[in-house]
Structure formats: C-alpha cells, structure tokens
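Task 17 of the worksheet. Students: predict the tertiary structure of the chain below and write it out as structure tokens. Keep your answer in the requested format; marks are given for formatting as well as content.
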Amino acid sequence: MARRPLPRIPISGNDRIARSRELARTAADNATDVLHPLITISRGLRLLAAAGLHKWSDTPKDRRGPGLFLAAVCVLAVALAPYGPLLGLIGLMGVAAWKGRERTPVRTGPEESQVARLQALHDALVPYFSVPEDPSPLFAHGGEWAKAFSDHEFDADGRLTRLRVKYPPYFPDGEAEARARIEQLLHAKSGRGREYLFVWDEEANQLLMSVLPALPVTIAAQRFVTAPGELVLGFTDPDAVRRTMPVLDGDATRDAPPVVWRTGPRSTEPHLLAVGHPGSGTTSLLRSLALQALPYGDVLIVEGSGTGEYACLTGRAGVLAVECGLAGALAGLEWAAHETERRLIAANRARQSGHPAPEDVRRPLCILVDKPSVLSHVAAADGRPDPQQLLQIPLRHGRAAHVTVAVADQFDSLEFLDETVRTHTRARLVLGPATPEQVKGVLGAPPHTTPTADVPPGRGYVRMGTGAVLRLQVPATPDPYDEAASEAHRQAVLGLLPERYGTGEPEVPRDRRAGQPEAGSAGSGGTALTGPHTEVPAGPARGTATGPVPEPASGPAARTASAPAPAEG
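Model answer:
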C-alpha cells in the first residue's frame, strides 16, 4: 500500500519575500565579516592613492621629474633586494590596513540639550529680529537656529560661553535701547552670574557674545614698574590696553595689563573721582595711590569717615598730614589751596625770567579726600565753611602746579558733592556692585559688559575722560592694622610704608613754619601738617638724631606756602 504525502503548510507571497530578505541580510553580514580585512585594505589603498594624487597635483612641474626618478630608484631597490617584493607588499598592505581602519566619528555638532537651548534662544529672539513684511525672515517661530547662530561654545554645565548671532539688516543696531534689549535677553537666557561681553559689528550685521573670565584678585600692593607721575589704578583685560607690566601674583611673577593714570602738567585727566558702596574698595584704592605717590612726592590725606583707615600712614616720611576731623581738614585743605597758589606764582615768575620752575614747585603733591560729603554735613551743622569749597583752587589750577586731587565717596552721597569736584574729576571709577544706570551716571557711558550682583572688593569699571569703559580690579591694599585682612596682603602694605619720623631718620622739627597750618588742633582727630621737610631717601636706619635738622635755604626741601593758614580749634 503506497504512503500518502504529508500535508504542506501554505506559505503566502509576503512570507516568502520576508524570508528572502532575512536570508540575504544574513548572507551579507557573513560576507562582510569574512571579507572585512579585504574591505579595510581596499579602503586604505583608495585613501593612499587619493593622498598620492593630491600630493602629485600640489608638486610643481619642475620637481615632478626628480620625484619620479626618486620613486623609480626606490622601487628598483626594493625589487632587487632579497625578499624585497614580498616585504614591500607586506608593508604596503600593513599601511593600507592602518589607513583604512574604522575610526570612531568625532562629534562636531552640539548635543541634544545644547540644541534645545539654542532653539529656545532662537525663538526668544523672534519678536526682536523679525517683522511681518519680511518675505524670508531669518528669525521665525519654528525656524532653523543654524541659519542665525554660529561659533557656539558651551561650558561643562551646558551653558553658552560664546555665540555669534546674525541678525537682519533692518534691525536698528545703532540705537542704544534696542541693543540693550538684545543684550539683556541674551544675558538672561545664557545664564546669570557671569560677565558677558557684547561686540556689535554693524557692517556685517553680527553680534558676538562671549563670557569674560574673572579678573584676578591675588595681585597685592607692590612697587609697579611705572614712570614718575604714573599711578596704577588696577588691572584689566589683556585685550583692553596695549601695555603690560611684570607683577608679583602670589609667589609667581607674570605680565598683567594695567590701567595707568597719568598725572602732572601733561595729563588730560589730572584729577580722579571714585564712587562705590560701603565695602567696595574705594578706601583701598586711595591707600594704593598714596603708597605709589610717596616715593616721588608728598601726600595730604583727609578722611571724612574718621574710622582710622589711614592710620598706618600717620607720621610717615612724605605724608604731610592725615586729617580725620573737621578742623584739621579745613586747615589742611586751606594750606593746600595756598600752596597751589604759591606754586603757580613761583612757576610764573620763573617763566618770566627765563628759568625752569623751582624744584619745590615741580615736586608732586597728591591730595586724597575720602568721603568729603560727611565733612560737608558736619560743617553745615556746625556753621563752618564747606571743605569741598577749599578744593576749588587745587582742582582748577592743580594741573599746572603739579597738584593732583583724588576724591572717593559713596553712591548715596553723590548729590552732596560740590559741582567743582564733579566737573574737574575727569578720571572716573565705579567700584562694587552697580546697575548699568549707576555706572552710566558716574562714567558718562554705559558699561561694555553686564555687571554682576556679587563682585569682590576693588572690582569695577574705569574711564579716562572720554575714553573707553574698562573693567578694573584694584590691587589688594588693605589696612595693615586690620587683623581680618589677609596676612600676605598686610605684609605687602607694611613693606611699602616709608619710615616714620624719628625712627631711623632725622626728626623733623614740629614748630610751625611759614605757610603751614598749625600742629593738629584738639578737634582735628589726625596728625598735623609737618609742612616742608628734608627729604630723606628710604634706606637703612641711621643713627638717632639728637636735635632738629636745620632746613637748607634752597633746594627741594625749601617748600613754603604763600600765606599761613589759621589754626582751627
């Protein structure tokens, strides 16, 4: 009896196609695995051939003949050498395999989170960079951010550190309000708490935003490499100035870009005004200027707050007085006004007679006034003249008489500053946290970066006359008697202080001379003006003086004022 065949399972046409595709894919994968070395070597040979053709096309025609001859000699040497062709073929295959190996592709584009951030920033700029009449807007809701953004960089936290924005030509980039809106939006969307620099290229319709690194706060007070009449206000960004100087930063020496304030008769900004909030570093700035000015001239200090921030300079060589009370401040500033007049008269007489100005006229005199608004308030309550009125002569005529005035006060006291002080102080500083409106109100121009709310003492902005607004970090110059300050910075300040009178230097007579205020009155709260004194260079201590040193009849030490200033008491 014949066997009947088993029933066959019906297979549809789609199943046959799927099984065929699976078999073909499996065969292709197996063939790829078997032929992978051959594929790698073939890819490498193709890359080597392309590199050779590129090298041949770049070779000048006059060098192709010697190149072919050298290649033929190399091939002949390999062919004639024992086992040369075999070794050459093995070497060629090895180089081709290395050249054609599979490499992990390097990711060049932004990550998904970065793409989302760029797209959100693009959509946020649509209301500012688009108009309904534009047939092909560069910024549109749901548009491609790659058309408008380039040169984008991110930090480790995924926040933008650099971005170039291309905007349409009809955007009013010449209006300060329009530019401020864009800068504020980019600042908010890119992350707060950092300083952003915005560079507008109106010709190319591009805006470059970059994050600025924080200025170093480790540079302490020291002897800077400057010429007489140059005072270092602080340090700024490397690309902001064209000059660097060696400074001691911690234990290492490096070059830093300084902001130099030039004083004297040839200065275009002979007087300075610094404004800030309490603890912003304006007092440290004046203390730094005093230490820099002492090696070349005399310093008169008037402290309105009366907190003793300048006690370390009391009685030092070159420091005429440190006045903390109203009576002493009036006497000191009155003497400064008479001294300015005397210098002008002496210089005028010297020019009329055809002689150079006397040495005592050319010796710089630096007047540092800290918080004069406090003294003005006390004077008004006591019915006495405003001390700021006595600064009119040094401010108006001090440039020709080698007299420099530096004033520091706070934002809440700006309205109490005398008009003459605000008019003749063309070098301006703003220290501490401040809004763009406050910076513009003092400097006359808005800041070129976005001010941050939390800044260290001494950080701010500076502008010389009508120049550019620069970032600034004042050298750390704390009160050396302040135990809360850094020990290294305190020692740096102590190392710069001149010697005191009577400690290693001849004692200066304390009697009143012509043209000087009397020794500090009972209400002055500071040291008295010692007036003209014999200049003794800093150096090793000498023997203790047994009596007053007579003053020479002429020379740099013979500096007298034109009229005596009455004592206040």
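Marker's comment: Residues 505-569 have pLDDT under 50 and may be disordered. The longest helix spans residues 326-352.
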